[in-house]
Amino acid sequence: MTDLQKRGDRSPVPTDWTYAPAPESTDIVRLQERYGLYVGGEWLETKDQFTTIAPRDESPLAEVGQASEADVQNAVAAAREAFKSWSKLPATERAKYLFRIARILAERSREFAVLESLNGGKPIKESRDVDLPLAAAHFFYYAGWADKLEYAYPNRSPKPLGVAGQIIPWNFPLLMLAWKIAPALACGNTVVLKPAETTPLTALLFADVCRQAEVPPGVVNIVTGDGSTGAHLVRSEGIGKVAFTGSTEVGKAIQRELAGRDISLTLELGGKAANIVFEDCALDQAVEGIVNGIYFNQGHVCCAGSRLLVQESIHDQLVRKLKRRMSTLRVGDPLDKNTDVGAINSKAQLDRITELVQAGTDEGAELYQPPCRLPEKGWWFAPTVFTNVAQSHRIAQEEIFGPVLSVLTFRTPDEAVEKANNTMYGLSAGIWTEKGSRILWMADRLRAGVVWGNTFNRFDPASPFGGYKESGFGREGGRHGLEAYLRFE
Amino acid sequence: MAQAPVLPRGFELPLKQRLPRVGAIDQVAVEERAADLAKRSIKKEAKVWALELAIRCCDLTTLEGQDTPGKVAALCSKAIRPDPLDANVPSVAAICVYPNLIPAAKERLAGSGVKVASVATAFPSGQSPLGVKLRDVEDAVAMGADEIDMVIDRGAFLSGRYAKVFDEIVKVKEACGDAHLKVILEVSELGTYDNVRRASLLAMAADADFIKTSTGKLPGAATLPAQLVMLEAIRDVYEETGRKVGMKSAGGIRAAKNAIQYLVQVHETLGPDWLTPDLYRIGASSLVNDILMQLRKEKTGAYQSKDYFTND
Hints:
The structure holds two protein chains of two kinds.
Chain A: H1 2-8, E1 34-35, E2 37-39, E3 42-44, E4 48-54, E5 59-66, H2 69-86, H3 91-107, H4 109-120, H5 124-145, H6 149-152, E6 158-160, E7 163-167, H7 173-186, E8 190-194, H8 201-212, E9 220-222, H9 227-235, E10 241-245, H10 248-258, E11 264-268, E12 274-277, H11 283-295, E13 307-311, H12 315-326, H13 347-362, E14 366-368, E15 384-387, H14 394-397, E16 404-410, H15 413-421, E17 428-432, H16 436-445, E18 450-453, E19 472-473, H17 480-483, E20 486-488
Helix pairs in contact in A: 2-9, 3-5, 4-5, 5-7, 11-12
Chain B: H1 27-37, H2 44-56, E1 58-61, H3 69-80, E2 94-97, H4 102-109, E3 115-120, H5 130-142, E4 147-151, H6 154-158, H7 162-176, E5 180-184, H8 193-205, E6 210-212, H9 224-241, E7 246-250, H10 256-270, E8 280-284, H11 287-300
Parallel strand pairs in B: 1-2, 1-8, 2-3, 3-4, 4-5, 5-6, 6-7, 7-8
Helix pairs in contact in B: 1-9, 2-10, 2-11, 3-4, 5-7, 8-9, 9-10
């Protein structure tokens, strides 16, 4: 019995289960100290540079080129030159390059995922399980369309537009690059792409993928820089198309700039999506969907479900469940495999979130944040939910682009539709109900480009994405996404 | 705000008034959430802690026609001291056997703190008259079982006779006396997650101490989504009534890695309060040795062959 007694003496077993850190190794990423611009298949030095940093600890990662007007002109010229042969290439040949890019992205996905989390601040599990698989899937998908354009648009002689100037945001840097570049190349265009100022690194690494895939020089050009670089790109002569994803404010400026010029434009802008929860829904799964809808990628998602519309009869129960679930969200190092909510992308964005949350409190909404210890360095914002929100509050109207949810209530399906549509945006919406017929009834009436039923933030290359009203125009993804890069004779 | 109970046919009166609404389960979403939680990366001291917890929560099980007192006695020794070479490895929670083997188990486990659980109520099908089932339970309790693992009448449940299922559980609970009652839903026979949730609530309303996924006699038993649905039902009952009902997953959990996934789910769904053998059990026969292998690896840095761990 001695052994048994020894066991009895064992120190009491702790009841607290703290997960040990599970950091993804960054060894796979080899960063250069300094990056130029990728133009005409070569790296060009710029006069000025800026430092790109890691939002998780504000540490510098690399020096990146600030493209001037002349640099942008060079890139556009290289793309024009490449267009001559690229657009004449048999479509099956173009497809081959796209398939190659897709395969290389899949092969190097860990490297890209780590770099994406490092430079952007998003949790590694998201870049690993969402961004990278989807980016590769986009190239695979549009590779398949390249030689079938005549079938997509029978008797309309689809032709490429020329050089596409593409400006992408910092929330899904590589995925947005894939959304832009894949259909453009499949349709026979060449591109000059400007990644966001804060997240240029995966785009620069993508240049290496183009080299590896032996994409002809000038077909893909990457120019880094701040807003002025984007402005030069939009103003430059020689482009046939502008595709922009970003804020509504900049989108409007681009549209003004292009007025009177024969340049095709697509804009994918802000959103303030309603996530509508009916009393008959599968409640615990709806809570998961709400959490995924707003805390995915720290809420840096244009189609985030930032307005929760709950049927009044289940409001208290749902909010209780939501708060409990929020308390299990793990906020911290984006490179930790167990992190659910990572770092805010930039100081400027953190300031904007902080300001709007303050406005919410000032206007009388009730704030809740689960207790969580935020790291000292870097930029962080605890998952936040506001209850008691009125439709007229700023937090119910303006896009926060952060982990902040506003809860409103409704009584009837009609009221839900009316409240959901009563916004200047119209990018996405979610409906949670056990009634299939109600999902269809609602989807008919919601003025939003994407309507999810009993899910949220699901993307597929075959499914078109885009907005109503101030959320922009044009569609990306699916067969619809081709149209943005074609003209018809 | 109190929610009026929404109850299915046959479900109306006997249930406690504050039972939460039955509600629905979305299959796609619940499977997605379960898959998501299964990706948690548990390392180092957190892993050792989880592995030891898995042993402490284990119901070491043998439910074979060929079980003998000798075999059960051997298993009991294993239950008390799973790793002969390492006295720091804790004992398992209980031994789970057929009623005839209770005396043999009782004798060997005396003074060890390891409980004896017995299956009863015409296990595994439950397709016998109520009188037989109750007698089964009474005999098991009389022979010294600390815990009774009963099966629900799936035939009655699937034909919508919920009240029959409910009444049977109530009567079995009475027959248990002081013994703890675990109610086996046999989720792989229920067909839908909606049914899993409904059966969970029904068993809890009938005063089950634990709800349990499976008999272990069928494939596709204790899946992660099925456990998640049951844990969420337990959580709803706790939030509505303050009552803590236990959870037992049994059937098909063989690897230490899987055991950790089940524990993570409990941790993130019900919280740390449930991470105790009083409220969470894993029914398994071959799991313990895989855990021992992992623990030895964490301590020595090297995997050892199966021959370094006793089979029973």
